[in-house]
Specification:
By secondary structure, this protein is mainly α. It is 82% helix and 0% strand. The protein has 21 helices and no strands. The protein starts with a helix and ends with a helix.
Length: 517
């Protein structure tokens, strides 16, 4: 049942991402044409500012970590007690955040001096709508942690799919009815509230969790506080990457440049969600692996780390190499030549993810082992580096400069995590590099060479030509991956599993008939 949840949940997750990607390809340019480039820039700016302040303060990660442990131990009472403490945390934090956002509202004219008076008035309305929803949404972020801990991946990923479909449908309806910028933000709020109700219903019906709000435990409170504190520092520092960049551009540049960066953000989001679609799903299994203190958990988890990492590295490689070959053609057709700077920006911000997204299992292991302080230190250093470089480079190169600073910060992060996983977490990183990166590297080189020749002999044209090129590049990549990414034993084992499943399916009707006789 757990494997079924994991596999079907992963499939739904990728379906959700594909739906979101296809919608974005056709939907985002139409939406920008409907509301205008400047209003789209304001939309991006408002979302970045609100999410800069509204984080879950590490309580979602804490919920996953602690409930996974209690559930694995079979202590359901501890789950209820912990959930009650977490909800109290959220109540206090929500009140503080509301006060901060209310105060910030009155200082918007002094912060965004680059906006015109009309743009500022629009921005204030968008700010109020987005802030109100996120304050309501904050306490319910714990639902994700509960669903992960109980391995309800199908329901969790179904919620993501429902949200993405609702966003597209409601936005199309709103804009077709003549609504504009305000409708976009309101649609996000309505879709978010519907998904909250769905997740709450799942938790109530599919789990035994009942928050004990009367429970008090100073030791547990203190433990959760310090765990959440470091996760909060990490999250805040991460906000110094993408979320703060539009605000920096708003200070040193104009709304048109923010719109270009908005396209970069959208595509980076697609890349990230696609390559980390199964992120968080391994928390319960990693927690169980760590319960036996007599075993070397890092050694025990290495095969999982290699297999998951190789899959994510290969998938990330397909996206990065494919975009490097065909991205310029795609951006020109999708958004128009005025957004061509987004091509360079997208490559800069996604390339370092090759060597970070592949560390999903090891990063989750750090959370399980409560090494979140190290994650926080790395995040702070990278965030500070990005802010400093972004002010310098954005004033000269605009959106591309901002992306260059993010690239530098993300590269530093990837290098730091590889060192930490080897020195602190005791993973065999040389084994990981050989079985993950070096296995996939020839695939990327072969595909890149093929793509360069393809572009040389086939000129860029319309969507049909681009689609044919995408299929050709993907086919070459997948064929090369079958040869280089898997050993003979792995290919043989995969074929045997497929054969066994087919044989079982053939035998099932016969067995049923025999039982009936």
């Amino acid at each position: 049942m757990k494997n079924k949840q994991l596999k079907i949940g992963a499939v739904i997750s990728y379906v959700s991402i594909i739906v979101n990607l296809l919608a974005g390809l056709f939907f985002t340019p139409w939406m920008i044409r409907k509301i205008g480039q400047n209003e789209y820039g304001l939309y991006t700016l408002a979302n970045s500012l609100i999410t800069l302040f509204l984080i879950d303060f590490g309580l979602s990660s804490a919920t996953s970590r602690y409930i996974s442990r209690y559930h694995a131990e079979g202590d359901e009472q501890a789950v209820d007690n912990f959930t009650g403490v977490v909800y109290k945390f959220y109540g206090i934090i929500d009140f503080v955040i509301l006060a901060v956002l209310t105060t910030l509202y009155f200082f918007l004219p002094q912060i965004y001096v680059g906006l015109t008076s009309q743009e500022l008035q629009q921005f204030k309305v968008v700010y109020i709508i987005a802030a109100s929803f996120n304050v309501i949404n904050l306490p319910f972020l714990t639902l994700n942690g509960i669903l992960i801990a109980y391995e309800k991946f199908i329901q969790l990923k179904a919620a993501d799919l429902i949200y993405r479909v609702l966003i597209v449908v409601l936005t199309v309806v709103a804009l077709q009815c003549g609504m504009g910028l305000y409708a976009l933000v309101s649609v996000n709020a309505v879709a978010g509230l519907i998904v909250i109700l769905y997740k709450y219903a799942v938790v109530r019906t599919a789990t035994k969790v009942k928050a004990n709000l009367k429970y008090k435990d100073k030791k547990l409170f203190k433990e959760i506080f310090f765990f959440s504190l470091w996760v909060t520092v990490t999250t805040l520092a991460q906000r110094l990457i993408f979320n703060i960049t539009p605000s920096i551009l708003g200070i040193v540049a104009a709304s048109g440049v923010i719109a270009v960066f908005g396209v970069v953000t959208t595509m980076e989001g697609y890349f990230y969600t696609f390559t980390t679609a199964i992120g968080g799903m391994f928390m319960p299994s990693i927690t169980r692996a760590c319960m036996d203190e007599s075993e070397d958990a890092a050694k025990k988890l290495t095969p999982l780390m290699v297999n998951v990492g190789r899959f994510q590295f290969a998938l990330n490689g397909l996206l990065v190499v494919g975009f490097a070959l065909l991205g310029r053609h795609f951006i020109t057709l999708w958004m128009g030549p005025e957004y061509i700077d987004a091509y360079t920006g997208i490559l800069l911000v996604t390339a370092p993810g090759l060597f970070y997204n592949s560390l999903e299992v090891a990063n989750t292991y750090m959370i399980v082992k409560n090494k979140v302080k190290i994650q926080a230190i790395i995040a702070v250093v990278c965030g500070v580096v990005n802010v400093i470089l972004s002010f310098i480079l954005s004033s000269v190169f605009g959106a591309v400069g901002a992306c260059l600073s993010i690239c530098a910060a993300y590269t530093l992060r990837a290098v730091a995590y590889h060192i930490v996983h080897g020195k602190v977490m005791r993973f065999n990183m040389w084994q990981f590099i050989k079985q993950c990166y070096l296995r996939v590297l020839p695939v990327m080189i072969i595909t890149a060479a093929f793509g360069i020749l393809l572009n040389y002999f086939v000129a860029d044209a319309g969507w049909v030509v681009l689609f044919i090129k995408i299929v050709a590049v993907a086919a070459v990549y997948l064929a090369a991956a079958l040869v280089f990414c898997f050993s003979r034993r792995e290919r043989r084992d995969a074929i045997e599993k497929i054969k066994n499943r087919l044989l079982r399916r053939k035998r099932q009707p016969q067995n049923t008939n025999e039982e009936e006789k």
